[in-house]
Amino acid sequence: MPRQFPKISLSEVDESVRLLAEKVYASVLKEEDTKDALSMYTVPEDCPIGLHQDREMEMLKEIAEQYSEESTKRKKNFKMKRSQLVSQQFPSSLNINPEWAMSVVTPLLFPGTPVCPSIPENSPEFQRVTISGDYCAGITVEDYEQAAKTLMKALFIREKYSRLAYHRFPRTTAQFLRSAENQKWNVEDEILPDMCPCPREGEDPYTTEGIPDDLNYSLQMKDGIVYVYDDAEALKQQQPHSLPYPDLETFAIDLTPHHYITTSHCCPIPNDPLYYGFYLHEMLNEMAELKELKGVPHRDFYNVRKVDTHIHAAACMNQKHLLKFIQTTYKTEADRVVLEKGGQMITLKQVFDTLAMDPYDLTVDSLDVHAGRQTFHRFDKFNSKYNPVGASELREIYLKTDNYIKGEYFARIIKEVAHELEESKYQHAEPRMSIYGRSPDEWESLASWFIQHKVHSPNMRWIIQVPRIYDIFRSKKIVQNFAKLLENIFLPLFEATVNPQKNKEIHVFLKYVTGFDSVDDESKHSDHMFSYKSPKPEEWTSDDNPPYSYYLFHMYANIMVLNNLRKERGLNTFQFRPHCGEAGSITHLVSAFLTADNISHGLNLKKSPVLQYLYYLAQVPIAMSPLSNNSLFLEYSKNPLKEFLQKGLCVSLSTDDPMQFHYTKEALMEEYAIAAQLWKLSTCDTCEIARNSVLQSGLSHQEKKHFLGANYLQDGPDGNDIRRTNVAQIRMAYRHETLCNELSFLVEAVKTEASSTQVE
Ligand SMILES: [Zn+2]
Predict the structure, then answer these.
(1) Between β-strands 427-434 and 462-467, what pairing exists: parallel, antiparallel or unpaired?
(2) What is the pLDDT of residue 704?
(3) What 3-state DSSP class applies to 691?
(4) Contact 580/596 with Cβ under 8 angstroms?
(5) Could you give the residue numbers annotated as active site?
(6) At residue 495, does pLDDT exceed 70?
(7) CA of 657 to the centre of ligand 1 (A)
(8) Residue 705 contacts by C-beta under 8 Å, 6 or more apart in sequence?
(9) 225-229 and 651-653: which strand pairing?
């Protein structure tokens, strides 16, 4: 069956939805109005009185409801449905032991009955905390159902975007969504990303043998998206090859806030119950979890696999490493020509002479690449830290791939970092390299750097970061419109996919690229309001930078079409993994909820319980870097990582920029160590974070099976191999049961509402 992008047109949606959408997105532009419209996303933390008033109003509404016969009937019906759920309605598509399902859901469904769940054989035994009684107490049935419907709709939208792009979507959530539609979930329907397995020992990672043939397709960019045509004739007729081409209008509608807004007090946002639930779980089961871990032979925190899921290649070494490297090159290659300026050849010695510096005297202090107090809330100052000794020449020589020495020094530094990872064996990294979209040759040059210097390492996978700096290129007249930028970034990839024979180096390099990132300071404002009325990329000729959502949609659209084309050819696919929620508007997190496989930072989820709950339900992975945040946007003690972990969000730890933030050789371990010390994380906690990092990484299916266990795609204890992950089965069961509970409430609320409307 051809994969199509289901289009929605504006005429199909309400006027009210449209107005609401415009209001929220407009408010993003003007900070003073933000409070009003954005309050729907956020919780008024600073105003307990207001919060109390809201709750009181809700209670009055609920009391009034009691006098309505119809509501009472619905509430009763709703409760009855829920009780039926245990025996009859638990999604049959869930391939789980019904007895186990009983034990999970029973206590919550039969308030008043003695809590004595029977523990199935294969589920670990531990002390379960149950909450009995009316789950939607404190709000009206109508509000509860409305909120559940909204959340479900948002999950359906994310599922649609994930499936189309070969992004991951958790099994459990998918199973509950099918059950809400009264359908059966099939394992064959599951869509997974396709990553190239790591070449085996003795295999040449750069081999150009067996490269697929030319398809003779034609390509053309239209509305900022590359379209594929079977031949020149089809291009003339404008009949594209059958692939799911997304459109801006549908995206703008799917993005409208009515799918993501529901005020926290009248929605089953159990952020607090999730938080305190874990607190109790930990209190009661900490020793049992530890006991489990003590019984695992050979495995401990040091030898579980960890992936640094967010690290920029240009800062992947620490400051001491860079310093030593500079000194070594000066000692051994001082007379080497390393720069060309205005036709003049400049040697390394001359570079340091003009800087009036002797590398021997350099210290990490004079190198001055470390971030500190002075960079907090100053992204501009942070960016200049990429220049050693404040000299852009040194950045050019040591940290670039396309300089006079063809990026040799940079490749050598990266290979030294890779070597250390290989030595440590259990650590992996996914360095991010830049493609700017200035010219179409960037890919060629990056790929040939990669192959010429043999940069591949079994412990590294590559991510391409695209900085959001169209405005800079436009002002320098390097590109005429936004579409040109997109074309420079994506067309070479489509060409290499259609005709790898002509683009051998790019084809080989792409085997080790697993994803894309969109990167820049999120707190920068855009003066444009993103909506269905936004100009097409070809028409975007102004000097202003497009807003975050606009960038995200167009990157997603091209990656998605490209993935479908590559899948057709049996080639590996890419994940979209943007920086998101580090700063700036909360709407960024909505855009990424649709378009991203996983995100980096996610700090702003702190401000929105609704979005946080959605990220939890969809288990959207978040690569968090508290040490980086501490130097830039948020003090360490205020970092929400621990809270997110406790609630069950899929978080991992990453370094971001070891050059700027870390002190030791093992930057990732430093990150884990500080988090563990400061937040008193248990071994099970740190191993759970490590497991999350492997799950969300771009490592291949084969590697994940090897590192996590053969059944890692299954959720819960069945998918966990404790001998490999060192995560207690009790923890896995707790997480899975909690997620099933939350999802079952939502599904039942939606089903109950559907059946009661049918009765009417
Ligand atoms: Zn970053």
Answers:
(1) parallel
(2) 97
(3) helix
(4) yes
(5) 601
(6) yes
(7) 7
(8) 712
(9) unpaired
Do residues 62 and 139 make contact, with C-beta atoms less than 8 angstroms apart? yes
SS3 358: coil
Q: For residues 170 and 243, what is the distance between their CA atoms, to the nearest angstrom? A: 24
pLDDT of res. 2 = 55
Contact 691, 347 (CB under 8 A): no
> What residues are neighbours of ligand 1 (ion), with CB under 5 Å?
656
Tokens representing 635 are: 């003090």
What was the pLDDT predicted at 196? 92
711-716-718 Cα angle (round to 5):
40
DSSP 201-251: TTS-TT--TTPPPP---EEEEETTEEEEESSHHHHHHT---S-----HHHH
Please write the tens of the pLDDT for every residue from 338-357: 999 888 999 999 999 998 88
pTM score, two decimals?
0.89
How deeply is 610 buried, as exposed, middle or buried, from its count of CB atoms within 10 A (0-12, 13-18, 19+)? buried
* Least confident interval from 19-23, 409-413, 512-516: 19-23
Domain assignment of residue 350, yes or no:
yes
Q: Is residue 382 part of a domain?
A: yes
With tokens 């909506």, the residue in question is: 531
CA of 311 to the centre of ligand 1 (A): 6
- By the 8 A CB rule, do 43 and 609 touch? yes
- Collapsed DSSP state (helix, strand, coil) of residue 467: strand
Quick one: which of 675, 677, 611 has its CA closest to 645? 675
Lowest mean pLDDT: which of 53-57, 635-639, 661-665? 53-57
DSSP string across 314-354: GG-S-HHHHHHHHHHHHHHHTTSEEEEETTEEEEHHHHHHH
Show the domain range for 402: 319-406
Distance (angstroms) between ligand 1 centre and the Cα of 160 equals 27
Q: How far apart (Å, rounded) are the C-alpha atoms in residues 159 and 106?
A: 28
Task: Return the pLDDT at 748.
Answer: 85
User: HSE-up of 392 (CA within 13 Å, CB side)?
Assistant: 3
Residue 358 belongs to a domain:
yes
- The pLDDT, as a whole number, for residue 374 is 78
Q: What is the CATH number of the domain that holds 395?
A: 4.10.800.20
Instruction: Tell me which of 148-152, 349-353, 624-628, 663-667 is least confident.
Output: 148-152
pLDDT at 185 over 50: yes
pLDDT single digits (tens) 4-48: 888 877 777 766 666 666 666 665 555 444 444 455 455 445 455
Crossing angle of the two packed helices 587-595 and 141-165, in degrees rounded to 10? 50
Which pair of structure tokens corresponds to residue 81?
């449905």
Mean pLDDT, rounded, of the chain = 86
Q: How far is CA 435 from CA 19, 457, 616, in A?
A: 37, 21, 32
Residue 692 DSSP SS3: helix
One-letter amino acid identity for 228?
V
Closest CA to 584 of 379, 310, 385: 379
Instruction: Give yes or no for residue 558 having a pLDDT over 90.
Output: yes
**Is 687 part of any domain?**
no
For ligand 1, the distance from its centroid to the CA atom of residue 310, given in whole angstroms, is 6
CA distance 12 to 144: 26
Number of domains the chain contains: 1
Instruction: Region of 390 please: left (phi>0), alpha (psi -120 to 50) or beta.
Output: left
Cα(656) to centroid(ligand 1), Å = 5
Backbone angles phi, psi at 339, to 5 degrees: -140, 155
Distance (Å) from CA 583 to ligand 1 centroid? 12
| Count of beta carbons in the 10 Å neighbourhood of residue 288 | 16
Q: Provide the β-strand partners of residue 225.
A: 222
Reading across the β-sheet that carries 579-580, which strands appear in turn? 579-580, 599-601, 622-624, 651-653
Report the distance separating Cα 457 and Cα 418, nearest Å.
Answer: 6
Structure confidence by residue, pLDDT tens digits, 116-145: 334 455 788 888 887 766 666 667 777 788
Are 220 and 235 spatial neighbours (Cβ–Cβ below 8 Å)? yes
Counting every residue, how long is the chain? Answer: 760
